[in-house]
Amino acid sequence: MNFKTLLSISAMSITLIGCMHQTSSNTKYRLSSVNKASLQSVVDARSSETKQRDNWRKPAETLAFFRVEPGMTVAEALPGGGWYTEIIANYLGSNGGLIGLNYNDDMWPKFGFFSEEAIKGQIARTAQFPSMVASKTTNGIKAAGYTFSNTPATANGTLDRILVIRALHNLNRFENDGGYRTKALKAMHRLLKPNGMVGVVQHKVAESTSDEGANGQRGYLKESAVIAMFEAAGFKLIDSSDMHANPKDVPGPKDIVWRLPPTLLGAQDKPELKAAMNAIGESNRMTLLFQKQ
Q1: How far is CA 292 from each of CA 163, 226, 285, rounded to the nearest angstrom?
Q2: Measured between alpha carbons, how far is 285 from 221 in angstroms, rounded to an integer?
Q3: Which stretch of DSSP H or E encloses residue 163?
Q4: 3-class SS at 39?
Q5: What is the DSSP code string of 44-62?
Q6: Which one, of 233, 125, 245, 250, lies nearest residue 180 by Cα?
Q7: Which helix (DSSP H) or strand (DSSP E) does residue 182 occupy?
Q8: Contact criterion met (CB below 8 Å) for 85 and 102
Q9: Which long-range contacts (CB under 8 A, 24 or more apart) does 172-177 make?
Q10: How many angstroms separate the CA atoms of 278 and 269, rounded?
Q11: How far apart are CA 284 and CA 91, in angstroms?
Q12: CB 139 within 8 A of CB 90
C-alpha cells in the first residue's frame, strides 16, 4: 500500500470519526426552546422570597436536566411545603399529572424528635397534596397523594418521571429498621413507564467517609452508594451533573447537613457561626438521572 493510499484512508477515517461525534452530539437530549422558555417563565413568576434559594437549587436547570416536559405525569418524593411543587405543577400544565409521594406513615415516629401532633400532621399531608397543588396553580392539573406503600395498582406503569430531591437520605437511614429505601425504590420502578426516569438530587459526602457517617443519619450519602442502590433496584445511570456541587461544604465527622442554610440548625442565635455557615452556602449535592430497565 503506497503512501498516497494511506493518506486517503486516514482522511476518510478522520471524516467518519467527525461524523460519529457530530451524530452523538445531535442525538443528546436537549429541552426544546419552547419548553425551556415555558419553564423559565414559571420559575420567574414566583415571589421574590421563594426565589431566594434559586441560586443554589437551580430549579429550571434541574428540571431540564431531568428531562421533564409539559404534559408528563410526574411524582415528587416528599413534596413538603411545595417549593418544587409550585414550579412542577405550573410547568406540566393542565394535560399533565402530579403525584406527591410521602414517606410511609410508620416511618415518621422513627425520627425520634417529632411530637405526636407533628407526626399526625406529616401523615395528613399525603391526603392534602391535591389541595396544596390547587393552591399553587389554577391550571387544573390532575393531582394525587400517596405514600410509597399505598400507591394503587392503577398507577403502575403510568409515570414519566419521579423526582427525589433531597429526600433519599431518610429512606436510607431507616433501611435497617423497616427496609424503607428498598421498598421505595421498588415502588418507583413499578410506577414508572418503560424507560421512565428518576431524577435524584442528594446531599453528597466524600467517598472516603465511613459508611456509618454516610448512611443518611447526617443527611449525607456517598454517590457510589446511591448509584449502587438504584442499579440493584433495576435502574441504569444515564447522566450526571455537578450543577449542585459546592466544594466549600466539607463536613467534619460529626457535622450534619442541617447546620447549613436554609436550616442553620444550632446557629440561629450565634451570629459568627451563622455567618460562617452562610459563607459555605447550601450543601454539596450530587445530581443523577436513572432510567428504568
Answers
A1: 13, 15, 22
A2: 9
A3: strand 159-165
A4: helix
A5: HTS-TTGGGGHHHH-HHHH
A6: 233
A7: helix 180-191
A8: no
A9: 172/215, 172/216, 172/221, 172/225, 172/229, 173/215, 173/216, 173/217, 174/107, 174/110, 175/215, 177/110
A10: 14
A11: 27
A12: yes
Q: Computed over its alpha carbons, how large is the radius of gyration of the chain?
A: 22
Q: Beta 285-292 vs 235-241: how paired, if at all?
A: antiparallel
* Spacing of C-alpha 74 from chain mean position: 12
Scan for cell 393552591, then name that residue.
135
First to last CA, the chain: 48
pLDDT in tens, 28-76: 899 999 999 999 999 999 999 999 999 999 999 999 999 999 999 999 9
Q: Residue 59: what residue type?
A: P
Q: What is the pLDDT of residues 178-211, one digit of tens each?
A: 999 999 999 999 999 999 999 999 999 999 999 9
Mean pLDDT, the chain, rounded, equals 92
Residue type at position 148: F
